[in-house]
Amino acid sequence: MELRWNLDTLYTSFNSPKFKGDVELLDHQIANLNVWAEKKLQDTTRAASKIEEFLRLYNEYKSLYSCLYCYAYLILNSDNTNIEAMDVLDNIELKDSAVAEAFVKFNKWFDSLNNIDELIDSSPYLIEHSFYLKELLLQSKYLLSEEAEVIIEKMQSTGSRAWQRAYMELTSTVSMDIDIEGESEEMSLAELRNMAYDKSESLRKTAYFAEKEGCKSISQACAACLNGISGEALTIYDMRGYKSPLEKVLMVSRMDYETLNAMFSAIEESLPIFHKYYHKKAEILGHKVNLPFYDIFAPVSNNNTKISYSDAKDLIVSSFESFSEELADFAKKVFDERWIDAEPRKGKGNYGLCVDIFPIRESRIITNFTGNYGDIGVIAHEIGHAYHSYCLRDEKMLNTEYPNPIAETASIFCETIVNNALLNILQRNEGLSILEKSISDVGYYIVDFYGRYNFENKLFERRKLGQLSVEELNELMTNCMVEAYGESIDSETIHQYMWMNKIGYYMAGNEFLNFPYSFGVLFSKGLYAEYINKGEEFVTQYNKFLSATSKNNIVDIAKTIDIDVHSIEFWRNALKLIEKDIEEFISRG
């Protein structure tokens, strides 16, 4: 089977007539939007008609922008040395900032209207976009003047986004020499970090401490980046009237504090369960007491059994058939139409990624298939993202965005289906490895991200008082990790520079890229528990749920499948599924 994707339904190259023509068309659409906003938003006459006109123009713009952006983004992620793709992506992002003035102008004008509900009800097209418009109305209360918003947008290119680029350059150019089988090899921080999964304990340990030293060498500069980005966020959100960056993130995530608090209360109760798992892992790996931090992600088996890409496809499709024919047929289409770039090669990122291209009703997936059984779960995970997009295929472009916490739901649900199938067919040692990898991933999103969430909360609180030194950041991170992992790990081995190895802290406007993943893991587990209880009748509910995710808040989305996310019992039940896996791992190990 072909392990490289086909992007021809999008574009054949940056130099193709279609790509060049679409770039020109995008410029034309941007000019049209700005001229339209300047002329049409002088008064509130024919308000319903003007709202509809704007939405049609903006839908067209976002659709074309999405195609151009996704193509450049996909090319760059499949080859991060591609300078042309970097330049094209920068250029496309710059064009998007040119629409900011028209968008802010419309938001301000829309907020000035008195009879919003009547206007929406007067047009089928507006009714179709009613949730999007209500979201705009809510967010417009936090907008500054048009002039101020445009100034912020422009200044961020030399402010937080410049700090972000500096951070990425710093962390991508540092390298360390380590000894591998008697030979010195130069490794980047990313390569050193990936060795956390290596089968050799000595190599894991060597790479871990080399990474710490590499981080230490650029810690002063990275601290400046983090202080600059977090300081700007506090200033801008305060100007806009948010109580905190967390309040802003919850609003954008369509999530409330009651849901967040219920989830974290359940997580805090469950931490001893995960500590039990880490203690058992330490025992299996031969550590006398606690698990060293460099062995958090260590494999517990040296099994080298391989599987072909073709057999991996068959296993995924057959596993999905146990849930629904529609999901299985979709997965077959993903493979047959070459939506996946699965070939490992130099210059390609070592991660799983799904990019949804709504205008052409397709997605593209990046993964690195090495023939290990663990690779199958990664592919299934990314197909789950694509299936979520498939369930929204009939929506207009402005109605395709779903909240971040929900984003991991379909992916982890699909991964769970496949992992359960693998456990049933694999030999004891192979099955133990799959089970442990699944628990390890969940532990990362629950325990590790609990520590990271607490770190970010405390970072913003401390940042209000002034800049934090490297030593203060190290202390803050270490304390938060100890709070999360407890006595199950060797605290002396904690990576105190972990505030440097997560890009989320450096992504301006995307604060708290931690709790949404915890939510996604637990919510998907909760859904799977519902599937176990309800069986076939749940399948229809599930598809309707995914279709509703782009036009509802999280509380209302959950209600479509009779789930109360305000109830701590829901989160406890989800965690019980994980506890069951941990108990099975302990008994098998």
Short key terms for the protein model shown above:
589 residues, mainly alpha, Butyryl-CoA Dehydrogenase, subunit A, domain 3, Neurolysin, domain 3, two-stranded antiparallel sheet, 25 helices, metallocarboxypeptidase activity, metal-binding, metalloendopeptidase activity
Mean pLDDT: 93
**Which descriptor suits the 3D outline?**
globular
User: What helical percentage do the residues reach?
Assistant: 55-70%
| Top-tier CATH class of the largest domain | Mainly Alpha
- What is the rounded distance between the termini? 36 Å
Unreliable spans: none
- CATH architecture identity of the largest domain: Orthogonal Bundle
Q: Beta-strand level of the residues, as a percent range?
A: under 5%
CATH superfamily of the largest domain: Oligoendopeptidase f, C-terminal domain
User: Strand order within the widest sheet?
Assistant: 3-5-4
Q: Give a quick account of the main beta sheet: strands, pairing sense, barrel closure.
A: 3 strands, mixed
Could you say what the CATH topology of the largest domain is called?
Answer: Neurolysin, domain 3
GO biological process, one term: proteolysis
GO molecular function, one term: metallocarboxypeptidase activity
Protein name: M3 family oligoendopeptidase
InterPro entries: M3B_PepF_2, OligopepF_N_dom, OligoPept_F_C, Pept_M3A_M3B_dom, Pept_M3B_clade3, Peptidase_M32_Taq
